[in-house]
């Protein structure tokens, strides 16, 4: 089958889709609020109106033997529209089924790709009060630092939607990298105990409803880099790194056991800088090279969907001609 990036293209047979300075914890945080130092205080009121959101059915691309085939879009704008629909349907699913929607964010261009969620009809129609936000990794810097993933998400997404502030779980930026990782893991365990976060029954690991991930040009995900010892960490949920090959050097990160316990993962890759890694995942490795970190994302009973633009699959496209 020749690979073609024209329009929106889905490789493989599609499966039917859908059937603070310290981490904030609160037992009563049901209404949208504006963040303040004391936690959840003043309600944020949205103006009504907005056109009704239509139900959209999508397809999750899942190949054989754990190879997840990409949905390819002509333009990044089309990708952003599809990602919003995908995320919104999962929000409806989980808020209806269990009264909460746990979402894990990454940094980089992922936040820009979420921009459609801040617009009508999603702004008015989603039950934002049930969302809980986490980070798959974070740089150990102050929250207002330009390198902060929290700041990136706040400026580009979180400040534009009414998620309760006490349901946004940022790292404690007053701690060292090691202590911040331990503190974040304790937070996750408290939320598992309170059943805010589900668990994977076979392992007891936290099972986030949706992880929205990006990938670096070297194939890294979260702060798990090629050849780094943290790739094999299997005991901790959250760990730390002090020698990141990409600045800043000190970070915390989820480990692969936690990432792979997710119910749904969306991998969002755009731009020609990612084309080499995409090619290795889908057509250029053949088992001869060590796997990239992104190839180690293999979900246990979850669904993994790739969202890519034409530039990100450009080498695949050339190879198939």
What features would you describe in this structure?
The chain has 321 residues and is α/β, with parallel strands linked by helices. The chain is built from eight helices and 16 strands. The strands form five sheets. It has a seven-stranded mixed β-sheet. A three-stranded antiparallel β-sheet has the order 9-14-13. Strands 2-5 form a two-stranded antiparallel ribbon. The chain is globular and about 50 Å long.
Q: Helix and strand layout, with pairings?
A:
Layout: E1 9-10, E2 15-17, E3 33-36, E4 39-43, E5 58-60, E6 70-73, H1 76-98, E7 101-105, H2 110-113, H3 122-125, E8 131-135, E9 137-139, H4 149-156, H5 177-193, E10 198-199, E11 206-207, E12 210-214, E13 238-241, E14 251-254, H6 256-259, E15 264-269, H7 275-284, E16 303-309, H8 314-319
Parallel strand pairs: 6-16, 7-8, 7-12, 12-15, 15-16
Antiparallel strand pairs: 1-6, 2-5, 3-4, 9-14, 10-11, 13-14
Helix count equals 8
Distance between the termini: 11 Å
Strand order of the largest sheet: 1-6-16-15-12-7-8
Largest sheet: 7 strands, mixed
Instruction: Please estimate the helix content.
Output: 10-25%
Strand content: 15-25%
Total DSSP E strands: 16
The topology string of helices and strands comes to: EEEEEEHEHHEEHHEEEEEHEHEH
């Amino acid at each position: 089958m020749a690979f073609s990036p024209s329009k929106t293209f889905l490789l493989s047979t599609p499966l039917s889709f859908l059937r603070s300075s310290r981490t904030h914890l609160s037992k009563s945080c049901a209404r949208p609020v504006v963040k303040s130092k004391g936690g959840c205080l003043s309600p944020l009121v949205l103006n009504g109106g907005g056109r009704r959101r239509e139900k959209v059915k999508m397809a999750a691309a899942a190949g054989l033997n754990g190879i997840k085939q990409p949905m390819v879009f002509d333009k990044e704008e089309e990708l952003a529209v599809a990602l919003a629909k995908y995320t919104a349907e999962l929000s409806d699913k989980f808020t209806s089924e269990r009264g909460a929607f746990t979402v894990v964010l990454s940094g980089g261009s992922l936040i820009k790709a979420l921009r459609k969620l801040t617009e009508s009809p999603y702004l008015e129609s989603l039950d934002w009060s049930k969302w809980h936000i986490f980070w798959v990794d974070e740089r150990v810097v102050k929250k207002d630092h330009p390198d902060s993933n929290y700041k990136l998400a706040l400026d580009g997404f979180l400040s534009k939607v009414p998620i309760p502030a006490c349901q946004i779980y940022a790292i404690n930026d007053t701690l060292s990298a090691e202590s911040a990782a331990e503190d974040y893991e304790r937070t996750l365990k408290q939320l598992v105990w309170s059943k805010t976060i589900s668990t994977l029954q076979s392992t007891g690991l936290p099972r986030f409803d949706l992880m929205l991930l990006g990938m670096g040009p070297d194939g890294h995900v979260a702060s798990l880099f090629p050849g780094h010892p943290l790739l094999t960490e299997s005991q901790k949920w959250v760990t730390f790194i002090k020698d990141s090959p990409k600045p800043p050097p000190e970070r915390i990160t989820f480990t692969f056991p936690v990432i792979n316990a997710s119910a749904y993962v969306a991998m969002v890759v755009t731009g020609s800088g990612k084309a080499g890694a995409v090619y290795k995942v889908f057509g250029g490795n053949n088992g001869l090279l060590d796997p990239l970190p992104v190839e180690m994302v293999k979900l246990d009973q979850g669904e993994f969907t790739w969202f890519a633009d034409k530039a990100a699959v450009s080498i695949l496209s050339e190879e198939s001609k």
